[in-house]
Amino acid sequence: MNNLFALPSPQIGGDVAYTPAAVARACVCQIRALCPEETALAPWWEPCAGGGAFVRALAELGHGAATELDPEAASVRAGLAVQGDALGGPPSGLNPVMICTNPPFSDATAILKMALAVPSCRVVALLLLQSWIVCEGKGPEYRTPWVWGPEATLYSQSVLYPRIAFEGPGRSGKETDQRDYALCIWRRTPDGSWCWGPGPVLLHRLVWRRK
To answer: What burial letters (b/e) apply to 109-137, b meaning 16+ CB within 10 Å?
Structure first.
């Protein structure tokens, strides 16, 4: 079986990709447009704060909290996040309505599963490699139950344009990544599930910067 979601462990620094501020702002605006009821509520949780770009963008929606595994990350040193492991769930006392982050690639599946299991959560928004979402025409060995069902299905997918120049250890912040990325949103249905049925996924082109 060719399992796209069993990603190899990265080398040191290879899994760290800090989101540029303009990308984070564009993603949060897109989430607000697609999920207006949920984003009008609070709080939010940013579980993998990294450089802090999503924390700053999410602050416009109201109060929330952020965590970051690396105690030396910029967000922790700036006081935007507290040190903590995302896979351990939200900070004590926090019942997030929305979970939004750019997860480490090697932990993306585990973080998605954790987020979907948070009882208070109604929206999960992850910035992911476009190739992480496999087209429906592929065989079942290429799919995942948290994208194509039966446990959850995507609500929307917004492909970012232009390609992103990520920041972080070993990255200049100037060299554009040669892969495409998408903002993927899971939205809880009125009956409490994460499955939106057999209909099409909302597909968008999210222009975060005009060339």
So the answer is: bebbebbbebeebbbbbbbbbeebbbeee
Which CATH code is given to the segment(s) 21-207?
A: 3.40.50.150
pLDDT at 72 over 60: yes
Cα–Cα dist 147/164, whole Å: 23
Q: Provide the 10 A C-beta neighbour count for residue 9.
A: 8
User: How far is residue 100 from each of residues 24, 66, 140, measured CA to CA in Å?
Assistant: 10, 10, 27
**pLDDT one-digit tens code per residue, 95-123:** 999 999 999 988 999 999 999 999 999 99
Number of Cβ within 10 Å of residue 21's Cβ equals 15
In order of 53, 164, 168, the CA distances from 175 in angstroms are 18, 8, 12
